[in-house]
Amino acid sequence: MRCGRGEAFAAKTLWGNGSTHATFSQRHDARRSGGAIRRIRRMQPHQRLEAALEMSTALRNTLASGVRSRHPDYSAEQVSLAVSRLMFGDKLFSEACPGVDIDV
To answer: Collapsing DSSP states into helix, strand and coil, what is residue 42?
Structure first.
């Protein structure tokens, strides 16, 4: 599966290699030296916002893929509701969408 623009942007921004997965040494270096954090701190505010929005979109797409694989019969609206439940948690989801019972 080809990664989406948001995933590639986030990986390139955080890991500097355009990959959606950091290698062991990159993860170790990031933890040891704070490399990813330093990259984020060097960004302009609008770049941080763009990265955050694109990572959020990548997360939603990943969650939606998981929901669709577990529930192939779900409509687009049901997938969206399940993703919202996963992202916001059961308590907040039930407060925002009272009476909606959706399996994730």
So the answer is: helix
Residue 85's nearest CA partner among 104, 62, 60 is 104
CA distance 101 to 58: 25
Going residue by residue through the chain (104 aa), what tens digit of pLDDT does each one get? Answer: 233 344 444 444 444 545 445 555 555 555 555 777 888 889 999 999 998 999 999 999 999 999 999 999 999 999 999 999 999 999 999 999 999 999 98
Residues 2, 29 within the same domain? yes
Q: Give me the domain span that covers residue 34.
A: 1-58
